[in-house]
Write a structure and sequence with these properties.
Number of strands: 9
Strand content: 15-25%
CATH architecture of the largest domain: 3-Layer(aba) Sandwich
CATH superfamily of the largest domain: Vaccinia Virus protein VP39
Distance between the termini: 38 Å
Bound molecules: S-adenosylmethionine
Order of helices and strands: HHHHHHHEEHEHEHEEHHEHEE
Number of helices: 13
CATH topology of the largest domain: Rossmann fold
Shape: elongated
Helix content: 25-40%
Structural class: alpha/beta
Strand order of the largest sheet: 5-4-3-6-7-9-8
Radius of gyration: 23 Å
Length: 325
């Protein structure tokens, strides 16, 4: 299977020239703290750079400034983090110093690290991400586990991932169950373009059909065997409590859903009661404290064997049920 969404390597060969030997556009670097500090430092050794980046990230309120300093330095220099940790960096070239300054100043403004790197790992796979899609979260892997538990390797069942975003859930399922017919939908065409890129680069043969649709509006009665969905579930009142990375940079259309955060999930459950075949199942990611309400919605719509799954923090994160035969 192909997996080419790791950052590309620079054509800049290392070790390279010292900054003052590169000539050219010095003004471009004039505003750069890191660059200015390093112009006088002929060695631009790893540790002083890390200390300076760590200081700036800590001042910006980043939770793990040392770790992120290492990751940003690795990103700017196209090496692995382990090489940064070993202090095995060659002298940085001018382009790398400028790139480093740009990355650090965007991270200081709380641009999510995953958007800076351009990818995020989910279910052991690297997914391309961009500001058009939610960054995949580890707790969402539970939905993949549930889908894999409910389908055997030879199953050719028809499963829909509603609100696919980067495609992380649908693609992870399809990678482990290549006979399934997986349909991944999203309202956002920009998100679907990212999902298509991920399908093309992660799956060798694509059994995923991508579809622009409002929830289950395009599906016929009794046409699905299973539904997974991580839909928006944040209420507008919770917005101010979100981290700046989420509040400012992740798409509103991937976060908010009506006054109680449950308007999309409520509507989806109503549609699922019709679109699932008898005996078909649904599994939904929910926010902290929403599992009782969502279980109640499923029961009200006639679903049986309603289940809840906790995440690693002990929060009931997934709720689902079966449409009676
Ligand atoms: C919370 S994100 C989840 C993305 C991805 N499934 C994941 O788990 O990382 C929710 C996604 O639902 C999509 N969405 C919002 N409203 C929708 C609707 N009415 N119909 C289909 N998709 C919708 C958003 O565009 C967004 O990509």
């Amino acid at each position: 299977m192909k997996n080419i969404v790791t950052p590309t390597r620079s054509s800049c060969r290392l070790p390279v020239r010292l900054p003052e030997q590169t000539g050219g556009n010095d003004e471009a670097a004039g505003s750069s703290d890191i660059f200015n500090n390093l112009l006088d430092d002929r060695s631009n050794r790893t540790e002083p750079m890390l200390v300076e980046i760590e200081r700036r990230l800590a001042q910006a309120g980043i939770e793990s400034p040392r770790l992120e300093a290492q990751l940003l330095l690795a990103l700017a220099t196209h090496v692995r983090r382990v090489d940064v940790m070993r202090g095995a960096l060659p002298v940085l070239c001018r382009e790398q110093l400028l790139e480093l300054e740009s990355l650090v100043s965007r991270r200081e403004k709380r641009v999510p690290l995953a958007y800076l790197r351009g990818y995020q790992e989910f279910y052991g796979i690297e997914f391309k991400v961009a500001p058009a899609v939610l960054i995949p979260r580890p707790e969402t892997e539970i939905l993949v586990d549930i889908a894999l538990q409910r389908t055997c390797p030879q199953s050719n069942a028809r499963i829909a991932d509603i609100g696919t975003g980067s495609g992380c859930i649908a693609i992870s399922i399809a990678r482990h169950r290549d006979q399934l017919q997986v349909i991944a939908t999203d309202l956002s065409m920009d998100a679907l373009k990212i999902a298509q890129h991920n399908v093309n680069h992660i799956l060798s043969t694509s059994s995923i059909h991508l579809l622009q649709a409002d929830l289950l509006s395009e599906f016929a009665t009794g046409s699905l065997d299973g539904i997974v969905a991580n839909l928006p579930y944040v209420s507008p009142g919770e917005k101010e409590r979100l981290q700046p990375e989420i509040r400012t940079y992740e798409p509103d259309t991937a976060l908010y859903a009506g006054p109680d955060g449950l308007s999309l999930i409520r509507r989806l459950i109503g549609q699922a009661a019709i679109v699932l075949r008898p005996g078909g199942w649904i599994a939904l990611e929910v926010g902290c404290g929403q599992s009782d309400s969502v279980s109640g919605m499923l029961e009200d719509r006639g679903f049986s064997a309603v289940f809840r799954e906790k995440d690693l923090a002990g929060i009931e994160r997934c709720v689902g049920g079966i449409k009676p035969s």
